[in-house]
Design goal:
The chain is an alpha/beta fold. Helices cover 41% and strands 15% of the residues. The protein has a domain of 162 residues: Rossmann fold (3-Layer(aba) Sandwich), CATH 3.40.50. It is globular and about 55 Å long. Bound molecules: NADP nicotinamide-adenine-dinucleotide phosphate. InterPro entries: Ergot_Alk_Oxidoreductase, NAD(P)-bd_dom_sf, NmrA-like.
Length: 278
């Protein structure tokens, strides 16, 4: 059944899974992405009206991150347009302990549109679908802050929560904090991935300066380096982020997925076995 639900970032890490959750309920949402039809491009406001036309509920993920310069203005403009076009409910994916993301949350919360904020800690899928995959494939994982405790959360859990609150108005006006069930370090994670994927990964504890220099040498674009440095200095070390919250259990009635379960499932897909030739 075609519906009046829009999933912005509907081919991304959480959006793709939100779409699947809705499809499992017989709902066919509109996908917001540059490759969808009608297309939606954060960098081209002319695409927004068609993408939002006729939409009543929407899940919003901003790309690449609510912390980057320009994100707040984009969320402000999108929220304003959504209200004008009659959108009744917004679910915004936000990041735990990010001041810039909280500014975006406030825009949605003060818009007059019904909302639920889904505020997430770092995703497990960063190790299989994002910036931590490449070092796993090379077998050499060099990261700073190797002993910081992080409640990594699974994108499947985030998506199930997001799809639930998108459809259920009893969560209107709430901030749902989604974390994994345990605090875990980078060192723990590399050990778990070594074991589950049957690889011998080397882990190196380096300084943030060495990490940044390494990214620059690899000619990673400046804005990506800026974002990763920001995430390490402001998000990772923020004590508010080093906590397990049980909102996933509250919404879904079951425990959040532990990292080991994600690692076993991901190892079976073979993604960590496609070893790069150096
Ligand atoms: N990763 C984490 O650990 C973490 C933790 C907490 C919060 N967050 C938040 O999660 C959000 C990202 O969500 P996600 O990880 O689910 O998505 P994602 O995988 O980062 O995003 C990819 C999606 O964005 C679309 N996209 C990329 N560039 C676009 C553009 N210019 N215009 C329109 N769409 C574009 C892609 O489709 P096309 O390429 O087809 O356009 C795709 O659907 C960020 O705001 C971040 O702050 C992330």
């Amino acid at each position: 059944m075609k519906t009046n639900i829009l999933v912005i970032g509907g081919t991304g890490k959480t959006g793709r899974r939100v779409v699947e959750q809705l499809q499992n309920k017989g709902i066919e949402p509109r996908i917001g992405s540059r490759n969808a039809s009608p297309s939606f491009d954060w960098d081209d406001k002319d695409t927004w009206v068609n993408a939002l036309n006729g939409i009543e509920r929407m899940y919003v993920t901003y790309y690449p991150d609510l912390a980057v310069p320009g994100a707040k203005e984009a969320i402000q403009s999108l929220t304003y347009l959504a209200k004008e076009l009659g959108v009744k409910k917004m679910v915004l994916l936000s990041g735990k302990g990010e001041t810039e993301a909280e500014a975006c949350e406030n825009i949605v919360m003060n818009s007059g549109i019904d909302y639920t904020i889904v505020r997430a800690s770092w995703f497990n899928q960063n190790w299989s679908e994002s910036f931590f995959l490449e070092p796993i494939l090379t077998g050499e994982v060099a990261l700073p802050m190797s002993n910081v405790l992080i409640p990594f959360v699974d994108a499947n859990d985030i998506a199930e929560v997001a799809a639930t609150v998108l459809l259920d108005d009893s969560y209107n006006g709430e901030i749902i904090e989604v974390t994994g069930p345990e605090l875990i370090t980078f060192k723990d994670i590399v050990n778990i991935i070594s074991k589950t994927s049957n690889r011998s990964l080397n882990f190196y504890d380096i300084t943030l300066e060495q990490y940044i220099d390494g990214m620059k040498q690899m000619q990673i674009p400046n804005d990506v380096v800026w974002l990763i440095e920001y995430l390490f200095t402001h998000v990772l070390t923020n004590p508010k982020n080093q906590l397990v919250v049980n909102d996933i259990e509250r919404v879904l009635g079951r425990k959040a997925k532990p990292f080991i379960e994600y690692a076993k499932e991901t190892a079976k897909t073979g993604i960590w076995s496609q070893v790069e030739v150096q």
